[in-house]
Design a protein that fits this description.
Number of domains: 1
Strand order of the largest sheet: 1-2-3-4
Strand content: 35-45%
Shape: globular
Order of helices and strands: EEEEHH
Radius of gyration: 12 Å
Distance between the termini: 6 Å
Number of helices: 2
CATH architecture: Roll
Helix content: 10-25%
Low-confidence stretches: none
Structural class: alpha+beta
Largest sheet: 4 strands, antiparallel
């Protein structure tokens, strides 16, 4: 699985009490333990880091299948 393939991917995440926000994976890196981490920037300008196991929760299944098989 090539982490570069996640860059540009759009996700939608629900923030409790605030609704759904659309965000885009803008980069990836590796944490101190070697785990892949992805930077998400939301349309309102907020950003957050997500580990892969978090990110996959917000990727539509058909897109995820294409990502892991590329």
């Amino acid at each position: 699985m090539d982490r570069d393939n996640f860059v540009g991917l759009w996700i939608v995440k629900e923030f409790e009490g605030h609704g759904n926000y659309k965000g885009q994976v803008i980069s990836h890196d590796t944490d101190m333990l070697g785990k892949p981490i992805f930077l998400i920037r939301y349309l309102d300008g907020d950003e957050e880091d997500m580990f892969l196991d978090e990110l996959v929760l917000y990727i539509p299944p058909d897109k995820f299948f294409l990502l892991i098989n590329s």
